[in-house]
Amino acid sequence: MNFSIRTRLTFWYTSLLFVSLIAFGAAFSYSLLKIFIYRTDNQVSSVANMMVHTIVKPSGELFLPRDFDIFLERFFGIRTAGNYIQVLDPHGQVVAKSSNLVFRMPIPKATYHAALGGATTFEVVKNVGRYPVRVVTKPIFVNEKLVAIVQVGSSLEDMDEVFNSLAYIFIFGILASVVVAGGVGWFLAKKALKPVSVITEAARRIEAENLNERIEIKVPQDEIGRLASTMNEMIGRLEKSFRQIRQFTGDASHELKTPLTIMKGEIEIALRSKGDAEYLREVLASNLEEIDRMSYIVMNLLDLAKMDVEKGTTAHDVVDLGKVVSDRCEQFKRLALDSGVRLDMLENKELLVRGDHVRISQLVFNLIDNAIKYTPAGGSVEAHLKKEGGWAVFKVRDTGIGISAEDLSYIFDRFYRVDKARKNVGGAGLGLSICKEIAEAHGGTITVESVIGSGSVFTVSLPIAAAEEATAEPVPV
Fewest CB atoms within 10 Å of the CB: 164, 196, 217, 395? Predict the structure, then answer.
């Protein structure tokens, strides 16, 4: 059966209290019993010791007048009132007993044999009256000869009555305490868990359409407050993810819809034309450009989707980053020349990093490609690769159109492109998103510094492979 947290808290609280009270009652009763027994033992032992010195003559003969307890108390000052006194001969036969003793106090065999051996025994004797009797059995030796055995007993009536009263007090007190504590615990549990109910209701109200709502936090530093803060952070991440998905879906739809619309319009016009071969070739060439554009978008989307799936499972091959940079710069020499842009590799160190060779090559490719694409004719692009601490730092500096300050924080978002870039060059706004995903997947970072009209500097930092890893054979290009 499933119980609520409130019920379970109350149950465990009252159970713990019940067990604690039982343990306290048992410990208290045991301690009190020990005190009673200790005091009783001192009392009967004191009477027994005085008896030893008064009822035995130096010759070893017993001095036991009639009603000897009254005689001893009156003439010798021995307080025998309230005590049962019994004197036995060495054979265990009763030779005298106090006037208040109407029954014979038994002496177990073990106690008798202990007395024969000279040992004093304390024990509780039952079945001699209404209440148990605490008895001390003490042997009397004269010249190493046993002449008598003295037994002094004291009724445990007072102790029995005290413990009976104490038992009632404990039983009813514990039950009352548990009932009251259960009620108080139920109330406190309700009050303590009320914020959880509030959080639950707030969480139920928050859906995909109103992810901008947040849970109210009254006490931020307690456990409930931290739980609410964590849930608010989670809702914030969900809101950001939903917003990105909506933006991603809208941008992807727009980017794919545009070439399809162009292709559809051109094909419809071509079908109504009179069959001009030159015009038809132009239409086919235009359609081929749009198909290439869609293929590029789809390929980048697939790359992003694949990287989302592969997060945390990036390859850990040893990659010669210096060779990758030099190869990519050499690859772009012709494109830069055709665009009227000077491409220079000013610094290139031999640095090894751990990762996926294909993805790292794609990262370098996208950054150089973007720099050339957004740099007007007559401008320049510079590539740098150097070591800074334990990082391989790759920089691409261009003298292009630059990026405004308000666009810098969004430049790595998927499908994001600044307006000037849309007017002058093509692209789907996915290249930098891919760069960011690749850098972070390899434990690195990517940053940008830019000024409108002065160009941009993209910086990628990747952790350098450990010394023992650097001896491994780099992945061939």
Answer: 164
